[in-house]
Amino acid sequence: MTISSITPMREEPCYPQVTTACRETLRQFNNTCMLEQQLNKRTGVLANEINPKQKHHKLGLMDAITLMKLTGDVQILRALAAEMNYSIYFLANYQTISDLELLNSYSNWHAEIGDVNRELAAALADGDIQRDEFERIERALQESFAAALEFLSRVRALVVD
């Protein structure tokens, strides 16, 4: 798809998940004035920027990143990812990693894959998959993704440039 093939939007987009995540981030941090000072914004501007009814105030990407770093809250990122049908996983800093930690990470990843296989086999035992069975499969699969990404992050820490 090229930019010229994209049809212009007639209405302002409204992303309720993202709007809710922004509002909840501010509410849970409970010090909007301090955040506005850190972002070099006047009092009240941040609330206007996350209000979908405000046409001329919009929270910018760099401010959203700074907001997440200041609050330590990534629900905005999670909502953005969900809006695009993606998911996020936390990857810790593994700058120093031992062989044993790497091996444990690899084992954990394969244990999670085993959990996916067990859930799938149990669900298929009667020939169909019920909603609760699907949800267990999905949860096990997400846990295996997280374990795989942790393993990858640990291996990345070993790369010599």
UniProtKB/TrEMBL annotation:
One of its GO terms (molecular function) is DNA binding. This is Uncharacterized protein. It comes from Photobacterium galatheae.
